[in-house]
């Protein structure tokens, strides 16, 4: 019986560690504190829950950009077609705290000079 309990506890600890990593990934803790801006062309868009992910090409450099959940994109005025392959976007937000990782989380997307604010409360000129 004690061995069964040890196995169950080990399984629970592994599940808790996995959930902790998942929550950290979907928050902002993996980003740095500075503002970052990237202008690039969308190569691939995977939009949906828990959040959309764009693979982008900035002069031959590949970037992964997390955008909002479908409801957040819609609330900002974005449509899936605006984020489709071939679109050129300027993304403002937070880049990964790991400088070797070309990944960022979008707070604002700029298309043809128009701002689409995903997280206006996080922007210096946004709504609080």
TrEMBL record:
Keywords: Signal
Source species, domain of life: Bacteria
Xref: Pfam families: DUF6152 (PF19649)
Signal peptide: 1-24
Protein name per UniProt: DUF5666 domain-containing protein
Species of origin: Hydrogenophaga crassostreae
């Amino acid at each position: 019986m004690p061995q069964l309990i040890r196995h169950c506890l080990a399984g629970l600890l592994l599940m808790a560690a996995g959930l902790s990593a998942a929550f950290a990934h979907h928050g902002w803790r993996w980003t740095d504190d500075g503002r970052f801006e990237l202008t690039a062309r969308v190569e691939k868009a995977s939009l949906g829950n828990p959040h959309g992910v764009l693979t982008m090409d900035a002069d031959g450099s590949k970037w992964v950009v997390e955008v909002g959940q479908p409801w957040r994109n819609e609330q900002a005025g974005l449509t899936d077609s605006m984020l489709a392959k071939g679109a050129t976007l300027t993304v403002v937000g937070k880049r990964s705290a790991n400088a070797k990782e070309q990944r960022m989380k979008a707070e604002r997307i700029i298309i043809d000079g128009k701002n689409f604010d995903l997280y206006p409360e996080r922007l210096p000129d946004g709504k609080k």
